[in-house]
Amino acid sequence: MKGLFRRTKRADGSHDRRRRRSFLIEFLRTEAGGGVTLLAATLLALAWANSPLSNLYEAWTTGSSGYSGWLPLDAKQWINEGLMTVFFFIVGLEIKWEFTHGELKDPKRAALPLAGAVGGMMLPAGIYLLINAGGAELAGWPVPMATDIAFAIGLVSLLGKLVPLPIKLFILTLAIADDLGAVAVIAISSPEKIRIVWLAVAAACVAAATLSRALWTRSPWTVFAVGVLVWLATFRSGVHPTVAGVALAFMIPSGPEGPVILERFENALHPWSSFVIMPLFAIANAGVDLSSFSDAVRSRVALGVVLGLVAGKTLGIFGAAWLAVRFRLAKAPPNIRNSQLLGAAAICGMGFTVSLFMANLVFEGEVLATAKMGILAGTLLSAALGSLILWGSQRAGRRPGIESGSTPKEASQWEI
């Protein structure tokens, strides 16, 4: 964490005006590389789980630590409940940044991705509930709700000029809003009995972090120590401990030092999250025995997840965004066609990381395996569908009458 609190002001004391732009570009670059790394880790997990060494993989991911004391966690649980707290801390940083200095600060600019996020959470959950009505697995409705930022940004980076910058920003902002919804679900869906005393201890630590400006501007090890205390208290309270990461991120001061502090933590931790924590999470959770494919095909859980991610996210995001613009609740970026927005909505169906996280919270055993199969299939289909739509949109944009030199009337036919 060396250099975490390096000064970012010029000699005259003014902030670098290009900070926000370079911050966003660096974020997109890290997510693009992280997406490739995450894909490699997923393939490794699948290969390991279906190799002659699959028994070792099974022992690692399902074995008990043999310890039932204060922190009865095995290796997989340390990743899912420990390291992933850092991932959700970074999610919290992004949410905080967007609400204070980014796309979500301006209500008009924020309305479009926020509307899309709401539609992209409600319709997938509704589809899952409809397909699994009357079954015993209704608790899986949050699984198809979220968007994987790393995979989504990684894909749009690979697509290059097929995805204009406003669409990239739309996907990024929507994915962040999606994750906020996922965090809310995690916070309220913990199956353990809530222990009020430990929850009060966690809240007190968070309150102390909020009131202490010096905590955030001095040694990062002080922040780390407070973070560990909040995590331990949250774990013992019965609330899922990853919520502690988001809570701490929200408590970063919003004054003049706020943007600098957010940027410093982001720059220091984001590479660790993208290139270490999330790949470890994928290795620990994405290994599915492909011999169970036939069972997944007949599973209503897998079907609900696939249709939720592919159809629910695409139609929910596009439909909600279109309605928001139609009723003048939001303003669409200039020169963006409906087909481009539809392609972006489809890409947001790549729900890999957070969907796996949700599945591990609500399922176990064979049901968890089929849910994972549905997540993998839904993510792949969403990536293919979104890429195809954006490719077709670019070809349509090259037709006579809608080139860059077309009249506003002609171009408006393709806009929202």
Low-pLDDT runs: 1-18, 399-416
N/C terminus separation: 45 Å
CATH class: Mainly Alpha
The helical percent reads: over 70%
Strand content: under 5%
When the domains are counted, the total is: 1
Explain this structure to me?
This protein is mainly α. The chain has a single domain, classed as Up-down Bundle (Na+/H+ antiporter like fold). Helix content is about 70%, strand content about 0%. The protein contains 17 helices and no strands. The longest helix has about 35 residues, at about 365-395. Residues about 1-20 and about 400-415 have low confidence and may be disordered.
Q: Helix and strand layout, with pairings?
A:
Layout: H1 19-49, H2 54-62, H3 75-100, H4 107-131, H5 149-159, H6 165-188, H7 196-211, H8 213-217, H9 220-237, H10 243-250, H11 258-285, H12 293-297, H13 300-326, H14 338-347, H15 352-362, H16 365-397, H17 408-412
Summarize the structure.
By secondary structure, this protein is mainly alpha-helical. 70% of the residues lie in helices and 0% in strands. Helix 3 (75-100) packs parallel to helix 10.
Feature tags:
single chain, 416 residues, mainly alpha, Na+/H+ antiporter like fold, 17 helices, 0% strand, globular, disordered N terminus
